[in-house]
């Protein structure tokens, strides 16, 4: 029997604070919602393809939006969601590259070779060039396509760049995280470079501008210069609220009463992003796009709890296959929705946006084979049943195998040491090492990184390699039913076997020294010629070699952490 230890709080006290139960339509959370007197009682019909605005935020936790009961102010997101359709059974991937690749291709990462980790800056790797992307399909349908923000789908060749994968214009970063003002990114000691690009050129002149503001301003500029009579697709992939935790001071001041410094900075970044979304929405109305627009809002993965994020009351965090890593914030706002102002529990996955948006655009999907996504617009707009009944969260054969997993534990059909997760109907199965498994309440009471004494920790289960949950009845994953329901375990393992037979080899090559920014004028950018082959070799060996190279970097980070901690302690004494 599992033993739970809650230090700092009791579960009863958390319930009394309202952390485990909130009214998502509580008036105080959406009090600023006012009915527009000009709003039509019947939504307009699709006389022409709608403008599509897809907004993706980075590392925003499930709890970190006002309508989920957060202490962070997000009035714009609250209003847009309340007036549209909230997706409360919506799933994403646990880290950056996988979510973005599945959005852009409509395919599970086992079908693109990106099932392991992320694409690192020095890897000769990118979204497979044979994949027809979402913006390419929209271009075929007559759309003007624009991307603003974080790419993180590889750039070692020019063919990998956003402007070669379906976007008419691009302003943003190619790597996974950059400084919000200087746009510098370091991929290890002394491997640093500038990463802000305009099209296929380095945007040196934009340095010093806070990225959240810069990206929102670029969206407004695009809308001002385009005709609302012509369909447009805007993919706005905010860098916010990924680390580093940086925000204009005036936003931090609003949260000065928060005791946890990381949470305070993080909250400021979320509110700043919320205002950027407000400005984008205002621009849509000002320039005549709004009445024929569909706005989709999505997070890319769970929040990083040790960097200010919160997924409470869900289990786990970014990088894990617990609900806290894969259940996302999502909603759709549009005058074209037939049944507005409601919460949808239809099962939706990030791969579904590809066929859904192409269908909305009246595009052609007949020549696209092997999609894993479904057209969920009838479920969103009309409240119909979702065509999706299961989700493959992932199968990662390269992730560290669980020590206690075996083929025997998998009924002889699946090695439970392999990291994998799947949901079928109301059941969710995890095998291998799913990742950090604690429940962490919002961290507001201490300055210490991570708020270790404010979490509920699972103290057994370390010798397990199989978990089963009825995710509908137990969304917080507190009651493992794998021993009580071996029949369900076996059924879901068979589904994993089925999917694994369709998987292509993992693309995770060794890092290439040619990628160093010093060889590219001090900026990150393509380094391989068009004649270079796709260097996918490496597999597990490349993973081992990368870990060896990173040891020094980890030690540096540890030393830096203790230096900063000592500085804080000394300043508190003074």
From TrEMBL:
Region Disordered, residue ranges: 519-543
GO molecular function: metal ion binding; sulfuric ester hydrolase activity
Keyword Secreted: no
Domain Sulfatase N-terminal as annotated: residue spans: 50-361
Keyword Hydrolase in annotation: yes
PROSITE patterns assigned: SULFATASE_1, SULFATASE_2
Coiled coil ranges: none
Cofactors, names only: Ca(2+)
Keywords assigned: Calcium, Glycoprotein, Hydrolase, Metal-binding
Cited CDD domains: 4-S (cd16029)
Family statement drawn from the similarity comment of this UniProt entry: Belongs to the sulfatase family.
Protein name (database record): ARSI Arylsulfatase
Lineage: Eukaryota, Metazoa, Chordata, Craniata, Vertebrata
Gene: Arsi
């Amino acid at each position: 029997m599992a033993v739970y230890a809650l230090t700092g709080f009791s579960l009863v006290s958390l319930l009394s604070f309202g952390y485990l139960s909130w009214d998502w339509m509580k008036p105080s959370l959406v009090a600023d919602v006012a009915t527009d007197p000009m709003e039509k009682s019947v939504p307009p019909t699709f006389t022409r393809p709608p403008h599509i605005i897809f907004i993706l935020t980075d590392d925003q936790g499930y709890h970190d939006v006002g309508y989920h009961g957060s202490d962070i102010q997000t009035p714009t997101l609250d209003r847009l969601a309340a007036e549209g359709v909230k997706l409360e059974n919506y799933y994403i991937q646990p880290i950056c590259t996988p979510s973005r690749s599945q959005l852009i291709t409509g395919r599970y990462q086992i079908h693109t070779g990106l099932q392991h980790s992320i694409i690192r800056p020095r890897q000769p790797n990118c979204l497979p060039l044979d994949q027809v992307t979402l913006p390419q399909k929209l271009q075929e349908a007559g759309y003007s396509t624009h991307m603003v923000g974080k790419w993180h789908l590889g750039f070692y060749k020019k063919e990998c760049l956003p402007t070669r994968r379906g976007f008419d214009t691009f302003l943003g970063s190619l790597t996974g995280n950059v400084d919000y003002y200087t746009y510098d990114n370091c991929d290890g000691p002394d491997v640093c470079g500038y990463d802000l690009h305009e099209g296929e050129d380095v945007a040196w002149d934009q340095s010093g501008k806070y990225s959240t503001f810069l990206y929102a301003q670029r969206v407004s500029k695009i809308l001002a210069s385009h005709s609302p009579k012509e369909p447009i697709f805007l993919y706005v992939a905010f860098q916010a609220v990924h680390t580093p935790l940086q925000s204009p001071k005036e936003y931090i001041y609003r949260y000065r009463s928060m005791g946890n410094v990381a949470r305070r900075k993080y909250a400021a970044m979320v509110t700043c992003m919320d205002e950027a979304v407000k400005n984008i929405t205002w621009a849509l109305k000002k320039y005549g796009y709004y009445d024929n627009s569909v706005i989709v809002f999505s997070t890319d993965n769970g929040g990083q709890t040790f960097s200010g994020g919160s997924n409470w009351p869900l289990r786990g965090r970014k990088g894990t296959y617990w609900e806290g890593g894969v259940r996302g914030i999502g909603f759709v706002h549009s005058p074209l929705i037939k049944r507005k102002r409601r919460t949808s529990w239809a099962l939706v996955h990030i791969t579904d946006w590809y066929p859904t948006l192409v269908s909305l655009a009246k595009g052609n999907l007949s020549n696209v084979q092997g999609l894993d996504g479904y057209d969920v617009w009838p479920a969103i707009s009309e409240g119909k049943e979702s065509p999706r009944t299961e989700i493959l969260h992932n199968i990662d054969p390269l992730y560290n195998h669980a020590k206690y997993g075996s083929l025997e534990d998998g009924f002889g059909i699946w090695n439970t040491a392999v990291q994998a997760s799947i949901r079928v109907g109301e059941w969710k199965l995890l095998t291998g090492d799913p990742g950090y498994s604690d429940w962490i309440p919002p961290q507001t009471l201490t300055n210490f990184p991570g708020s270790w004494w404010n979490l509920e920790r699972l103290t057994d289960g370390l010798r397990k390699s199989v978990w089963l949950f009825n995710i509908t009845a137990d969304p917080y994953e507190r009651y493992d039913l794998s021993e009580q329901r071996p029949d369900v375990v076996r059924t879901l393992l068979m589904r994993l076997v089925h999917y694994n037979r369709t998987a292509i080899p993992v693309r995770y090559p060794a890092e290439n020294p040619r990628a160093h920014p010093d060889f590219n004028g001090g900026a990150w950018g393509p380094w391989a010629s068009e004649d270079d082959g796709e260097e996918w070799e490496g597999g597990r060996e490349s993973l081992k070699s990368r870990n060896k190279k990173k040891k020094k970097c980890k030690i540096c980070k540890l030393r830096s952490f203790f230096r900063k901690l000592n500085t804080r302690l000394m300043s508190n004494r003074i």
